[in-house]
Amino acid sequence: MNMSFRLPIALQGYERERFEIVELDDESFAARQIDFICALYGRAEYFRACGRESPIGDAFLAGIVNMLEALELNSPDEAQGCLTRLQQIIDAVFAGRIRTMKSGAPGI
Q1: Of 50, 60, 102, 105, which alpha carbon lies 20 to 30 A from 77's?
Q2: Helices first, then strands: H and E counts in the chain
Q3: At 4, which helix (H) or strand (E)?
Q4: What is the pLDDT of residues 42-81, one digit of tens each?
Q5: Residue span of the structural domain in which 106 resides
Q6: What does the pLDDT read at residue 39?
Q7: 92, 53: one domain
Q8: This protein's superkingdom (predicted)?
């Protein structure tokens, strides 16, 4: 497939590279997601070796921010809907922790 897209500013050093975009079925996409999560944990290990205070959170946050920025740069019309759904998912996944934090008790 011949598709072009813009990269987030943190990845601008790769802007001249060409990336092959291929259609992925559910199984292939799941495998790529697993590879991505493994890469994030690998990045966290690097951050840990560098003495970062929150290496896993830092690695995942960088990945999430780059994905969201790529979405906004390339599909701004879809970005708002995606962010709305993402906020709903975050609220649901972390509901217990958010309620605990709001009540003044320490988070889990």
Answers
A1: 60
A2: 4, 0
A3: none
A4: 999 999 999 999 999 999 999 999 999 999 999 999 999 9
A5: 76-108
A6: 97
A7: no
A8: Bacteria
